[in-house]
Design a protein that fits this description.
With 1003 residues, this protein is mainly α. Helix content is 61%, strand content 0%.
């Protein structure tokens, strides 16, 4: 494209005698300016009529109209000039019409140019203004309007002279007739012979031109529609076609000429109002095309983008053709608007003042459109406006392709022209608009809204390479730039993903739009920048939505894209808010067009998926490794499971990986991760204690109550008794565990150590998490005050519960399973003197040595205490529920008390074992029960009755109820007292039990 806005004036005109000579030499058949991309809105004429034919016909109409407007004869300027130069003294010639003879001084600026804001032409001042002093200087006199028009329309002096001679002859032969009542081509055909032309070929071409004009004006484009019943059109068509095939005799009294005249006159003289005017050049679109030729003469023949300074005088004469061409002021305004616009387009679109002049002329057209409802006028206007609007919108619907820093100044003029055309089309021509309230339609705003959205969508959607051009952002479409950046960064490490590049480029486009285009468009749309960013927001949002739908896992690229999208959205919303400060709704409508990307939510969902994947894998790992775990106490010095070490290492790596994720919401999502890890450790703890049993697993079911027979021995009765379902279940579990090394004493100690180790590691992990949080850019002080540092909620309690259950299971397994042969099978079975506690103490001591060597220091006291409690429970169970193989007399009480003291001493271990106060605390129950064994039978029976009555009330007076077994042994508890009586080797006790409850002596 040529350099825009050259420093040229529209009025620059190089005229004078030299210009006249140059124009006279111009060919009549000059090639018209190309406008292939801008067809005429007024329709096309027959292809047999060239622009040069129309131009010459228009000139003939112009000269004839100006001649008749004065009522005086018209002389050829060229003839006058030749006369002046060939004679030493002035020769009188036929007077020239004053309208054409008027001298062009151009001392004042043109009114037309002022109205359109067009600059004056400096060259116009070079036109000589000298006065006539001698015949020798006559040739350099100032140019007249007639000669100016001849030069502007590129008509040779010979042709002009011939036309004027013919008009003089016509005037002489038809005195008093106005030119409007004649058919000019017909009259001209009758005036000339071949001798009036240079050669026969020129003469034949001239005749054909006039015949084609007659055909166009009377047959192809008549003012009034042809009547099918009228034979004149058919006769005229035959005459014209015949004349085109063979020469037509044009003599005045020639028969063929008379036939032609009759046919022409019969068609031309048709009228609706009965006037005498002939209608041969006023049919549409012939009249508009001829009038266009005349208006084109307003442009300097030597400087095609400039309007001559003498346009006022020339326009005054051109308007005299209205009568012949059927024009008026409103039609003139339409045609002149198009001529100005057409000249701007066909001359390279370099002279913005032409576009501005067309816009100003369009303002006059808008006034006309409001003043008339003529359907023919509206049809012509609609066609012209549609053409202008189509041209403008082709550029405005993709204005990022059309405009850059070099031609941005023309954008406002094109927008103004397009909006003006659209407003006239909608407000003054559209019937639908008239049916609606005008307040409901803002044409200008709607058009600008459409241009903004369309252009930005086009800019965004354009794909392909940038092609290496060093262009501004508005010249290289966004997707092109993104693709180019992606290709350029393929071989670079840490290159950005394409959507992240796109987000950056869209942000730049939004800023460019705000700075470059929005100030121009804001004149018609106050929220132009807001509409632009809303459109970009939607375009990028569509791409982002597709991207998010295809993401299955968290990747660095995904996070980069989502963070870039979040930043872009914030920038776009900020522009929209700034642009809407002065709007009525504060920009709410625009903001509603921008539903949030929810990029942070998408990131959060991806991170949650990442967390779930890690947690699920960790849980699977726990299942797999615990199945293979042997709980070997030799695995490490501290005696805990290797699986726990690996578990805590994986958790630590997971935390590090989490805090390395390039996301802006670590504190927000940390609870989700910690909850998952928390559950994994809790799951590990539950699996670690699974199958180890509990207190109830090992404590035997109490046998039914019996009474003793004095002096009887019950050796082997306990072993031979039928087992209860619970006892069978317990023994089955015990048998399984006994065959599995993973549930031995050392292995249970390792499990306890492992839980203790995990508890310690939790504290370390929490400190590391707090350190990570402090290093997070998105963390705040309130995150710590809200308890984020206390991240494990389930695990501490789970570990504590696991340690407690494992410790009890270990203790009761040792007492009731591992030492059952010396406790249940040996202690106090038969004679007490031969079945005392020494064997139990010896083997228990060995078990305690194993536990002490294996268990961690931090939990040793707890575990030993649980073993002590289990041994005390076992001791009481032997005394109160040992079955019929055991019986005690009052004399045996001292042995029992001594044995219990020995049991306590084992745990005290001369001060090296458990603290004495701890032993006293847990031995209280036993110490409360032992005195019952030295109490006499009658006292026991009396106390039992009293306690039972207190417990069961008056219902126990008639018959003492059998108290239920609570397992909570106490000297004041009925079942405890009853059991002491059951195992009392005493006749009184046996009778009481027989009488009161009918208890058997054996099972």
């Amino acid at each position: 494209m040529a350099h825009l806005f050259r420093d040229l004036s529209l009025g620059h005109s190089k005229r004078g005698t030299n210009a006249a000579a140059a124009a006279a030499a111009a060919s009549v058949n000059a090639t018209p300016m190309p406008a292939a991309d801008l067809p005429s809105p007024f329709g096309q004429l027959s292809p047999t009529i060239s622009d040069s034919d129309l131009r010459l016909t228009a000139y003939e109409i112009f000269v004839s109209a100006c001649r008749t407007s004065s009522g005086k004869p018209l002389s050829s300027i060229a003839q006058a000039e030749r006369s002046l130069t060939s004679s030493p003294t002035p020769i009188r010639t036929p007077p020239i019409s004053p309208s054409l003879q008027r001298t062009l001084t151009s001392t004042a600026a043109s009114r037309v140019k002022k109205a359109f804001g067009l600059k004056s032409s400096p060259s116009s001042k070079n036109i000589p203004s000298g006065k006539e002093t001698s015949p020798a200087k006559a040739a350099k006199k100032p140019m007249t309007v007639g000669e100016l028009m001849r030069c502007q329309m590129r008509v040779s002096e010979d042709t002009d002279s011939r036309i004027r001679r013919a008009l003089l002859r016509i005037a002489a032969s038809q005195v008093g007739r106005r030119i409007e009542s004649m058919v000019l081509p017909l009259e001209l055909l009758q005036q000339f012979k071949s001798s009036d032309f240079t050669d026969q070929q020129e003469y034949e071409s001239w005749k054909k031109r006039n015949l084609k004009v007659l055909e166009a004006g009377l047959l192809l484009h008549p003012r009034l529609p042809l009547d099918k019943s009228n034979t004149a059109p058919q006769r005229l068509r035959q005459i014209i076609h015949g004349a085109l095939d063979r020469p037509l005799e044009t003599g005045r009294n020639n028969e063929s000429m008379q036939l032609l005249r009759n046919a022409v006159v019969s068609l031309a003289c048709r009228s609706l109002d009965g006037s005498e005017a002939c209608h041969w050049a006023d049919g549409y679109p012939l009249n508009f095309r001829l009038y266009e030729m005349l208006l084109e003469a307003c442009f300097d023949v030597n400087e095609e983008i400039s309007i001559i300074d003498e346009v006022d005088e020339l326009m005054e004469q051109i308007k005299k053709t209205w009568g012949i061409l059927g024009m008026n002021q409103m039609l003139h305004n339409i045609c002149f608007t198009w001529v100005l616009f057409h000249r701007f387009v066909t001359t390279g679109q370099v002279e913005i003042e032409l576009l501005d002049a067309a816009d100003n002329q369009l303002a006059e057209v808008a006034k006309d459109a409001k003043a008339t409802k003529d359907p023919e006028y509206s049809k012509i206007l609609n066609s012209m406006l549609s053409s202008i609007l189509g041209w403008a919108e082709k550029r405005l619907l993709a204005y990022h392709d059309t405009f850059d820093s070099a031609n941005i100044d023309s954008m406002q003029n094109i927008v103004s022209l397009g909006v003006s055309a659209a407003k006239i089309l909608v407000e003054d021509i559209s019937h639908e608009y008239r049916r609606r309230r005008k307040s409901e339609v803002d044409v200008a705003r709607n058009r600008i809204d459409t241009y903004i959205r369309s252009s930005l969508r086009t800019a965004f959607a354009q794909r392909g390479g940038a092609g290496g051009h060093n262009c501004q952002l508005t010249d290289v479409m966004i997707m092109e730039k993104a693709d180019s950046s992606r290709r350029a960064s393929k071989n670079r490490p840490n290159s950005l993903p394409v959507l992240a590049i796109l987000a950056k480029d869209v942000g730049e486009l939004a800023v460019n739009e705000k700075v470059v285009f929005s100030p121009i468009l804001k004149r018609w749309h106050p929220l132009s920048a807001g509409v632009a960013v809303a459109t970009l927001h939607a375009c990028y949002g569509n791409e982002l939505k597709q991207f998010i739908s295809g993401i299955t896992e968290l990747t660095p690229d995904a996070v980069q894209v989502l963070r870039a999208a979040d930043k872009l959205e914030k920038d776009l919303v900020q522009i929209a808010v700034e642009d809407s400060v002065d709007s009525e709704d504060g920009g709410k409508a625009i903001i509603r067009e921008m539903p949030p990307y929810e990029a942070e939510s998408a990131i959060a969902n991806l991170v949650k998926q990442w967390i779930k994947t890690r947690v699920d894998r960790l849980k699977e790992w726990v299942d797999r490794n615990l199945q293979e775990e042997v709980w070997n106490p030799q695995a490490n010095e501290e005696g805990y499971a290797s699986s726990a070490v690996e578990l805590m290492r994986i958790i630590d790596e997971t935390l590090n990986a989490f805090f390395q994720l390039p996301i802006p919401m670590h504190p927000t999502l940390l609870p989700d991760l910690m909850a998952g890890l928390d559950k994994c450790i809790q799951y590990y703890a539950s699996k670690a204690k699974s199958g180890c049993g509990s207190r109830n697993t090992f404590v035997p079911t109490m046998p039914p109550l019996t009474r003793c027979t004095t002096g009887s021995k019950f050796q082997g009765v306990w072993k031979k008794k039928e087992k209860s379902p619970n006892s069978q279940k317990r023994n089955s579990q015990v048998a399984v565990m006994n065959g599995d090394n993973s549930f031995g004493i050392p292995q249970l100690c390792v499990r306890i150590n492992t839980m203790q180790r995990i508890q310690l590691e939790l504290e370390v992990l929490e400190k590391r998490v707090i350190t990570h949080l402090r290093n997070c850019e998105s963390a705040h002080v309130e995150d710590f005050s809200n308890g984020l540092g206390k991240i494990f909620e389930l695990t501490p309690a789970a570990c504590l519960e696991c340690i407690q259950q494992l410790s009890e299971a270990l203790a009761y397994k040792i007492i009731f399973h591992d030492l059952s042969h010396v406790l249940w099978d040996g202690l106090y079975v038969g004679e007490l003197s031969s079945s005392r506690i020494e064997p139990l103490l010896q083997e228990l001591e060995q078990s305690l040595m194993i536990v002490s060597d294996t268990i961690h220091d931090r939990v040793r006291t707890r575990v030993i205490t649980d073993i002590m409690r289990a041994s005390f429970d076992g001791f009481l169970l032997v005394l109160l529920a040992g079955g019929p193989s055991r019986a005690f007399s009052r004399q045996d009480s001292q042995i029992i008390e001594d044995d219990f003291k020995s049991l306590k001493d084992l745990f005290w271990s001369n001060g090296d074992g458990l603290p004495a106060e701890l032993i006293d605390k847990f031995s209280g129950t036993v110490r409360g029960v032992l005195p019952l064994f030295r109490t006499d039978t009658e006292s026991l029976i009396q106390r039992f009755r009293q306690v039972t009555l207190e417990t069961f009330g008056s219902s126990a007076r008639s018959r003492l109820p059998l108290p239920p077994t609570s397992g909570q042994w106490n000297s004041t508890e009925p079942n405890t007292l009853l059991r002491v009586l059951c195992y009392r080797n005493d006749e009184a006790a046996s009778r009481f039990l027989k009488k009161t409850y009918n208890l058997p002596k054996k099972l």
